[in-house]
Structure formats: C-alpha cells, structure tokens
Amino acid sequence: MATRLPESPKVGMVSLGCPKNLVDSERILTKLRSEGYRMSADYSGADVVLVNTCGFLDSAKEESLEAIGEAIAENGRVIVTGCMGKEADTIRARFPQVLAVTGAHQYEQVVQAVHQAAPPIPSPYLDLVPEAGLKLTPRHYSYLKISEGCNHRCAFCIIPALRGDLVSRRPDAILREAEKLVEAGTRELLVISQDTSAYGVDIRKQPRLWKGQEIVPHMTDLARELGRLGTPDHPVWVRLHYVYPYPHVDQVIPLMADGLILPYLDIPFQHAAPNVLKRMRRPANEAKVLERLRAWREICPDIAIRSTFVVGFPGETDADFEYLLDWLDEAQLDRVGAFRFEPVEGAAANDLPDPVPEAVKEERYARIMQRTAAISAAKLQAKVGRTLDVILDEVDDEGGATGRSMADAPEIDGQVFLRDIHGRVPGDILRVRIEDADEHDLFGAPA
Predict the structure, then answer these.
(1) Under 8 Å CB-to-CB from 207, ≥6 apart: which residues?
(2) What is the rounded CA–CA span in Å between residue 143 and residue 413?
(3) What are phi and psi for residue 310, nearest 5 degrees?
(4) 76 partner at 20 to 30 Å CA-CA among 50, 97, 163, 373?
C-alpha cells in the first residue's frame, strides 16, 4: 500500500511597502517552504497569515493596520512583521488577537512564530524548495538586497529607527545569490538597499574571494561583478536603485557606457532648493549635481535618471518651490515621482516651524507633476524612430506584449507596448523599433 503523505500547514502572506520589504517576504517564505510549509493564495486556505507591514508614513501605517484587520476578519490567525513591528503596542492595542509581532528583517522570530501557530510536519518528501528560493516577483526579474539600514539622519525619515544603521552583506554572498537567481531564470537584477552608494563602508577592509578573485565590498566593484554574470546568449540586466550621489558614483558611469550594467540610476534627490535641503538634513550642493549630470551624459548619452521629490516640506517657500521647478527644467530628469510632505511619528521634521498648508501642498504637487510630465513626454518623443532593447514582462495570445526599455524599472517607470510579438515569452530581450510615445510610455514593434 502506498504511503499517504501528511498535508503540511499552509501559510498566507500579505506583503506591503517597498521592494526591500518584498525581499524580506521572499526570504521568509523561502525558509518556510524549505521546512515543508505550503503557500496559500487566499485567506480561507491558510493555517496562518503573515502581514509584512510598512511603517514609513502615517498613511502607510494605516494601510498596514487595515491589512492586519482584514487578515484577522478573513482568517483570524495572524502574525505581523515588518517596519511597523516597532510599534507592537499600537498593533496589539487595536488587534489584541494577533499571534505575534516582530520587527523588520527579523526572519528567525517570524519563523519561530509560525512554528508555534502551525507546527511543521517534517518529511523528506515535503521539504523541497527551488534552488533560488521562492519569489514574489515574475521569474525573469529579481530584487537583490545588498545591505540593511542607513547611516543618514534625514529630518523626514525614520528608517534608521526602524531598520538600524547600515549593515552591508558580504560581496561573495551577494554574488552567490545573484548567480543562483540567474541560473533559475532571472534576466534582470534590481539592486536595492536603503543607500546603495554606501554599500561596504562598514566592511570596506574585508575583501572576499569570489571565483578565485578578491572582491572589495564597494558599490563599483560589486556592480562590475554583477555585470559579468550574463553571457551573449543569456544577457542579464543589472539596475541600480536608491543611489545617493556621492562622488564615487562617477565611477559606475563608465560601466554603463561599456554595457556591463544598465544606463540607469535611481537617485532620491528629494529637493533642490538649498534652504529646504538644509532643513531636510540633505546634501545641498545642487549646482555640483547639475555639473555631474552633464558629465555623466557625456560619458553615457543614454543614461536615464529617475528621482523623487518632496513638496510642501516645512518652511518651503514659494521661492524655494520655483527654484525646484527651474532646477528640474535644467536637470531634465527622465523619470520623476513626487510626494506631498506627510508628518511621520518620530521624525525630526515634525518639530520644524512654518508648516505648509495642505491646499498649497496640493497646488505644488499638481504643478511639479505637470512640469515633469512635459519633460518626460519630450524625452520619450525623441526616442520615436529609434531601435531599443526591450525586456518582455507580459505576452498575450494575439501578438500583443508589454515590456520595458533599459530606462524603465518595473512598477515605477513607464512601459513599452508592443504589437506583432509571436513565439516570445516573458524575460525575452529583443530589439524594438519605437513607433510612438506619450507622456510616460512607448509603443513599438520588433525591429
């Protein structure tokens, strides 16, 4: 008689917030899957539900609390983790029935809580996990977290309080993970951290061997080695996110010009007016930044710069905002996101004088989005008639497809809408002739 295998517990996951949280969720699920747990796509099928929270803004906290409430209402057995885990008392006061509350990247505590809520059933037939781990993103792209925490103390941010100071991962461990992801089908590596430019400053004197070569824990060295993981038959895109414009960032631009990493930088400038940057406790040499942008474009003309800006920060005057708009006209950034300033419990900015009225914030937000949309539209229109490399994200049965150019990160930037795509699958990289453009997206067909 055949042996009937016991059914292992099922775990559901709700993952909120940034890509760094998503990586944490993937690591938690990978560990649980390796212990035989099954994954549930809905509340009703789960023996326990994990809610990975975001606690960066008050609005994000409320969204997290709503997600916890929904999980409790639909399932009843809930474990809370993530950035809002720092506020365990707040969570328990509103939802006393939660089974456990842990903080950001506390993987062991989360797994222990799951063990208590739904004990695993050890079995050599069940304890299987893909070599690259479980992913919550499509197979062809993966987030690669290279460090935790941040050494900055920006007035509007509480990330150091949530995640601590910078802790860099060993370069050989990062490269080993990246290699496994590529072997498992990843065609695009999205490098993330709180401060990618600062990678290695805490372990700078601890080089590691990788394939017989000594690798220094530094952003440039790491980017170079990541760029070498691909082959002509299996190219791998390497995209850098959350890059502060330190002087050594200049060193990665030649790597882009040589095709080792994508000509793309995600730089959180936050503002341009010196007075506002000073209040934010941010570097305030905006004129030098403009010079460097020009220099980068001379070395790598196709470099795409994405950034985010905060409007309505306490003390931001009409003149400061006009300064920002003029700076954006000169900087000509490719992709821009904007946020209205929102007080965050625990942030130093909350105590600053001269708050900006909500109506003024809304007006400034509308103006900056209108200005940057016009810049984006002009830049995309200039690409009409060109032939670009595009990675496919979705392909339908009628020849339509959606992809992204090298200038587009998933979920936050634009897309390339394609026609006459046949015999292709997500993850394929092909040459595309651009036929049209709007404010945010491109349209084309195979070259």
Answers:
(1) 171, 214, 215, 216, 217
(2) 16
(3) -110, 125
(4) 163
